[in-house]
Amino acid sequence: MPTPGSNHTLEIRPAATRMRAAVQGHIIADSDNVLLLKEGAMAPVAYFPRDDIEMGYFARTDRATHCPFKGDAAYYTVTLEGEVLENVAWTYEDPLPGALQIDGRLAFYADRVEVYGVGDEVAPHDHRTDVDAVVQHTDSGGGQSQKAHWPANVEEPKA
């Protein structure tokens, strides 16, 4: 919340379209519930709900900063395919009154993570997939899966 007499403003509004965040072409967030925060003259920043982010790639760091308008920020590092992107995402877990809408959501540095709008289509893969379940249904090296096969997701061709 701006201080009295300040020209600093925060504007928070829903994104007009579904949005994604990607690292090296891998989608790490896909949401139709993104909030855009415009602060003063700066470019808008997309804040993704944690439930729409593949948090398995994220690790909390010790970095913390303070914004007099939003509050205390905590940071996350993303590790994907052996590449470590230090402190690439941040969150406000107890924001100040003028920024309560972004509570617990994550934002990304746009110069390090590709953040973009898409139509209504869902990501080509489900980023919320249970990785353990997928591994259990794959070949263990002995020529068969570790669990019973999933039912087919396509129909047999009709003659």
Structure description:
With 159 residues, this protein is mainly beta. It has one helix spanning 131-136, and strands spanning 10-14, 18-23, 26-31, 35-39, 45-47, 58-67, 71-80, 83-91, 106-108, 114-118. The chain has a four-stranded antiparallel sheet with strand order 6-7-8-9, with no helix packed on it. Strands 1-4-5 form a three-stranded antiparallel sheet, with no helix packed on it. The protein has a three-stranded antiparallel sheet with strand order 3-2-10, with no helix packed on it. The longest helix is centred in the last third of the chain and has 6 residues, at 131-136. The radius of gyration is 20 Å and the shape is elongated. The protein starts with 9 loop residues before the first strand and ends in a 23-residue tail after the last helix. Mean pLDDT is 83; it is low at 1-5 and 125-129.
- What distance lies between the first and last C-alpha atoms, to the nearest angstrom? 66 Å
Strand order of the largest sheet: 6-7-8-9
> What fraction, in percent, of the residue positions are helical?
under 10%
Counting DSSP H or I runs of 4 or more residues, the number of helices is: 1
Task: Tell me the radius of gyration.
Answer: 20 Å
SSE string, helix = H, strand = E? EEEEEEEEEEH
Number of strands: 10
The largest pleated sheet is described as: 4 strands, antiparallel
| Category by helix and strand content | mainly beta
Q: Averaging pLDDT over every residue, what do you get? A: 83
Q: What proportion of the residues form beta strands (DSSP E)?
A: 35-45%
Poorly predicted regions: 1-5, 125-129
Gross morphology: elongated
